[in-house]
Amino acid sequence: MIRHLVLFKLNDGVTRDDPRVVAGAAAFQALGDLVPEVTFWECGWNVSDRPIAYDFAINSAVEDTAALQRYLAHPDHQAGVALWREFATWVIADYEF
After folding, report:
1. Domains and CATH numbers, the chain
2. Is the entire prediction scored with pTM above 0.90?
3. Which 3 state secondary structure label does DSSP give 48?
4. Distance CA 15, CA 11 (A)
5. Closest to 34 (Cα-Cα) out of 64, 4, 8, 71
6. Which regions of the chain does DSSP assign to beta strands (E)?
7. What is the pLDDT of residues 31-56, one digit of tens each?
8. Other CB atoms closer than 10 Å to residue 42's CB: what's the count?
9. Quick one: DSSP state of residue 11?
10. Helix, strand and coil percent figures for the chain, each rounded to 5
């Protein structure tokens, strides 16, 4: 199994209630049900007020690296990424477990 973790940081001046952010969060909240390769999906907003904390997180899993590549190429994933590119940066970790 491959764990796929993504942490998003909103760009300076961008807030959670920005319509672009609302649309981006909704796209990723739905994504786990849209991509057949996903075996586990959760995402949500950070609740910590620590200055080093990221704003939004995705914790997901797929069967193997081939499934990860299919997930990454999936049109619904690509559409969500395109939304987030407008207002955030992110870091990713993919590891076997």
Report:
1. 2-96 (3.30.70.100)
2. yes
3. coil
4. 8
5. 71
6. 2-10, 38-45, 56-62, 88-96
7. 999 999 999 999 999 999 999 999 99
8. 11
9. P
10. 35, 35, 30
Contact 45, 9 (CB under 8 A): no
Give the pLDDT score at 3. Answer: 98
Dihedrals φ, ψ of 65, to 5°?
-65, -30
37, amino acid identity: E
Q: Which amino acid makes up residue 71?
A: Y
Q: How is residue 29 written in tokens?
A: 């909240």
Instruction: Please state, in angstroms and rounded to a whole number, the distance separating the CA atoms of residues 9 and 5.
Output: 14
Structure tokens, 67: 């499934």
